[in-house]
Each structure stands twice: as C-alpha cells, then as structure tokens.
Amino acid sequence: MRLTDDDIATAGELALGLLDKAEAAQARARMASEPDFAAEHAKWNDRMLAMEVIEEEAPSPALWTKIDAAISEKPSQDNYIGNVRVWQGLTAASFAIMLVLATMLWRQPEVTSAPQQPQILVAAIGAEDGRESVAANYNPQTGALQIIPISLETGKLYPELWIIPEDGIARSLGMIDPLKPALHSVPEEMRPHLHKGALFAITPEPAGGAPGGKATGPVIAKGAIDTI
C-alpha cells in the first residue's frame, strides 16, 4: 500500500515522540499490521541518528565569533543583524520538528539507480523565544531553496530573507511568503554564500524589500545552515 503524506508525517512524529499517548498507541498498532508504515518509521529513526552526528559537527565557536565581530563593525546594521551568539541555542528538538515538516512538503522520490543523491543543506530559522520559526532546504546543485514558514508574523511589513557568510555581510535573498511554502531560485552570484555554517536571518521590511539592500527592521529569526 502506498503511503500518503499524512502517513509519512505520522511515522515521523512517532519517531520524534510528538504524538500523544492515544495517537502513539494507534501508530504502533499500525506498525504491526502495515509493513510499509513500519519501514517508514524505521527510516525516520535512521534520520534521527543522522541528526546526532549533525549536532556533534556544529559550527565552531571561532566561526560564530568571526561573524559576530564582522557584524559589530558595521554601525548601520548593529540594531538588526546583532549579536549571533544568542542564536546558537536552537535545540536539536526544534530543528528536528522543522525538518519533519520540511521533508513532508519537499519529499523527493527515492531513486535507487542513481549513484549518488545530491547533498541537501538545511536550516532551522527561529527566534530565541520560539515565536518565529521557519524551515529551509537548499540544493546546492540546482540553486533551489525551499522556505517553509511554520510561524512567521511581521505585522504590516513583509519578511525578507538574508544570508550572512563568514565575512559577516548580510546579503538579501529576497522577500518570502509568511503563510505558505515556496520554492526560490537562488541567483548564481549568491550561491557560493550558501554553505554549511553560513547564517540565515529574517527581518521585517517595507513592500519590495529593504531600501538599498540594507536591513531596516530587527532580526526576528536566525539559523545556521547544516547538512543532512
């Protein structure tokens, strides 16, 4: 039996421990009678093991210090690109939840004949207080960047996405939809800046984007790029 997106989501939520007792019991009962569902649950368990490796390979403190210092040297952006150290506290659990949602919405078919699958970069872009959260998937080979807003509120302004590589300079990746997932094509000249350890940031800006490519609003969410 072919699994639906809801089935895949349930298997992932069971592996992450996100279901309540009744839902978890029902899902475990399905594992006993539905081999495809049990196999999907096993895949999610394997993904969780992979995340443990990601946590061990987090960006080095030296990289965060370099980004922080470079940003602090730019007076025009002190109020909104800010100190990055406080954003290193995004937990593995919040990252995992976002990755579940991202994978549900951008699940690629498995191709066993392909010699090697492209390495996908991911990021959990969030606020320290947890109010704003966005998941991102990026394919370096194609330049395809998918943004999945989970909770994103900018009032009468509009969210603009920025990339901050090692040089600490924030570069705009354009406006993003705060309500639904969307696929963006990253311009060729911007692609070298999207790599493991670089930082995504989101600021609320006027319609059409920040004037002159300089952020005018406070950073409401940040997250470092990592690999899966």
UniProtKB/TrEMBL annotation:
All residue ranges annotated as the Anti-sigma K factor RskA C-terminal domain in the record: 92-219
Superkingdom per UniProt: Bacteria
Keyword list, A-Z: Membrane, Transmembrane, Transmembrane helix
Segments passing through the bilayer: 86-106
Keyword match ATP-binding: no
PANTHER family: ANTI-SIGMA-K FACTOR RSKA (PTHR37461)
Protein name: Anti-sigma factor domain-containing protein
Species assigned in the record: Sphingorhabdus buctiana
